[in-house]
Fold:
Amino acid sequence: MITIKIEGMHCAACASSVEKALNEKNGVIKAQVNILTNSAHIDYDYKKVNLNDLYNIIEDLGFKAVPIQYEKQELLIEGMNCASCASAIEKALLDINGIESAKINLVSNKLYVEFDNALVNSDTIEKTITDLGYKVIKNNKEITFNIQGMHCASCVSNVEKLVQSIDGVEEVSANLATNKLHLKYNSSQLKIRDVKEILAKEGYELSEISKKVVDINQEEAIKLKKNLAISLLSTVPLLIVTMGHMFFNIPLPNIIEPMTNPLNFAIFQLLLTLITMYAGCNFYRVGFKTLFKLKPNMDSLVALSTSVAFIYSFVLTFLIYKGQTNYAMELYYESSATIITLILLGKYLEARSKQKTSESIKKLMNLAPKKALIVKDNQEIEVDIDDVEIDDIVIVKPGSKIPVDGIIIEGSSAVDESMLSGESMPVTKEIGDEVIGASINKNGYFKYRVIRVGNQTTLAQIIKLVEDAQATKAPIAKMADIISSYFVPIVILLALISGLGWYFIGHESLNYVITIMTSVLIIACPCALGLATPTAIMVGTSKGASEGILIKSGEALETTHKVTTIIFDKTGTITHGKPVLSDLIIENEKYSKNDVLKIVASAEKNSEHPLASAIITRANEEKITLQQATMFENIVGHGIKANVDNKAVLIGNKKLMDKFEIDINLGIKNFDELTSQAKTVMLIAIDGEYVGLIGVSDPIKESSVEAIKQLKALNLEIMMITGDNDKSAKAIAQKVGIEHVISQVLPEDKINKVKELQNQNKIVAMVGDGINDAPALVQANVGIAIGSGSDVAIESGDVVLIKDSLLDVVKAIKLSKFTINNIKQNLFWAFCYNTLGIPVAMGILHIFGGPLLNPMIGAAAMSFSSISVLLNALRLKNVKL
Structure:
């Protein structure tokens, strides 16, 4: 979906003509033009039509198209319990003119919203959420300092005013007695260094004590644990008072004995129930607000059911007070209290499980060190990692973690980058090399200049990719959301129908009716339905991240297991993408291999050709000292000519040899043989004589052959596509076991081949690493980018393989299958509980002489359904890919 501002429209006819033209375009799903806002809202398939096509349609009609730049915001929301909570918030936000998209990750409690800040602002978004009964958590960090320099109350006031005036500060309090300063702040707006510098100018010195990162799931678990404890402390005595004497013959004190003091018996239950309802007050606060706004959710069901039981019991208590003591044994206080307690227990266990599902994100966040040693004013000072800025000079000592991304300017070391690449072998880093934050410096000392901080670091981008994948909904998740949004109002209707039916048709008592309605409302809560998909997607994408497979969206995760055809790019994907000297054949007895390598590498030292680097690299590996070449000449399309140690050297193709009349008949056999092996061959002549030849190849990755073999075992069609010549392409394909080869293609040919296969109703995955692969990666149903490739390819891909191993393509497909199967299992159990539970709660079994479902058993079953779904999702953490 995109919104485009349209300039030049003056009437409804203008809007109608634009709308009609857009809707006639193949690939446009739906276009709506609003003459009041002069904008077009267009839902389209980006794989069939691009933005330029849409702009051209509008401008061909004589209007001007201006794309709207949307502001993106990420908010933490407290109080969401189920899919219907998330759906209510999303719908309320999307009803606001100017909000383009609103997506909620129920497991991480995050809202991702895009909006036109000319039409709507952050305050409106926050108010909409709070009006529904939820809370927006704006600040995400707390910190406590020791503060020196405060001497009186006016110092305290001065410090608080100074800090409060800084953008990003949410709350500040200074304590003169303890010399402490406590600060709540938004880390995206504020750097602690700023606070320290501002206070230092006024004579106050800060030293950090502790920092707390707000974990909404952890805070939710703590809050629920507290409320659960209060609820248990009131509900257990309530159950003893109401049930103990009936089932276990437990005697009650005379003061609350129902036969002797029925009013005290009722009031005692009332007080205990009020305590329990206080512990579960969030159900009522959110449930009734969403109900009144016609967006009922699970909390609405809990609030309605327990309120009905409570109000009914309260009326009976009033009648007992008026002297009708026979109602003392017909109270439903314990049902309200027990339902709240059981659901609080379920919510607490859910919160604990949600913490586990987000462990990989926490582990990734904890990879980065908390401090950095930087050079400032020729001094080494330790600062918080949040205070490191671009172009700072950072010092890294042996055994230390690298704080943020940068480029080495002094020193060298071996760096363990296994956190990023999965490879255990340390990588040698020297001046000019890039280092990645959170990787480990093994044995050297170096300084580097910071190039990326905060959300721009490689680690932060990985975390963002994982979070984005967890936030986006797979098609199967959208189906569950749609069902749950209709499910709650239907359940309320069914509860009313069943209650009224039993009262007017079945001629049952009001007591019986209350039992039926309460049971229906409770057992139908769609908690499990809402958790079925997001928990599995979160655990699945986290599992992928831990294996070095970054899946960017829920849709990509779902589509991957449906793939029928995989197209591999050759260079950099099946092969390493870096030429190496594979053959050096000497066919002149005057020279040894080392002599020729020294001469050739010395000549090629002045060349910028990629093949030259392969030769020079081999000479360096052999520790050969190169000489200075003179009279160097690059002969375009042929090779090079140079003088080395007073020898005339020619290195190039047959055309070069023919040009200088060099007889190469001696080397023709080897030339043809190496060429047939997809190697680039360079002929060598020294002082007018043919000496030998060099073969340069792009070696096949060790994982390629096994990966192709495993993919074929999954009955997938495998193809290779490349811009290389047909002979070289087929040679590589044969080595790795690929029969279908498409060679000598341009980037636009790659995308056309993908389209051609899609037109044959095939689900296509494209695996590539280069900029030229980006269009095909976008066009494919699933674009799989190699992590060592270009930024454009990685950005274009739906799945990113960090480890640069094609075996991870197999793992990605298996992970997709495991995750989708897990979601289907979760949905089955969620629907199973609801579809089987509702008829029983409505009294179907009772019609045929069976039992009537107790509301407390319904509450326990509903809680168990959510817990079982979460436990099933967590099994994904242990699958072997």
